[in-house]
Amino acid sequence: MGWGPSEKLRLNVTMDIGCEEATNKLRDIMNLVDQLDTEVENLHNILRNTNATVVEEK
Predict the structure, then answer these.
(1) Nearest-angstrom CA–CA distance, 51 and 19
(2) Is 13 in a helix, a strand, or coil?
(3) What is the pTM of this model?
(4) Coiled-coil segments, which residues (predicted)?
(5) Cα Rg for the chain, rounded, in angstroms?
(6) What is the pLDDT of residues 5-20, one digit of tens each?
(7) How far is CA 50 from the centre of its chain?
């Protein structure tokens, strides 16, 4: 199972007059989602390469 672009969250933002602050905040959120997606992909690769098993703590 890959983590390609088709699996990443993508949002299209239209800027309207008076919405610049909200648009900037949304863009910040989109950047954080991209960073999180990259970190999840890195973790997935590490786990796959080490044949590690993830155990959920109770």
Answers:
(1) 47
(2) coil
(3) 0.52
(4) 19-53
(5) 16
(6) 544 455 455 545 557 7
(7) 23
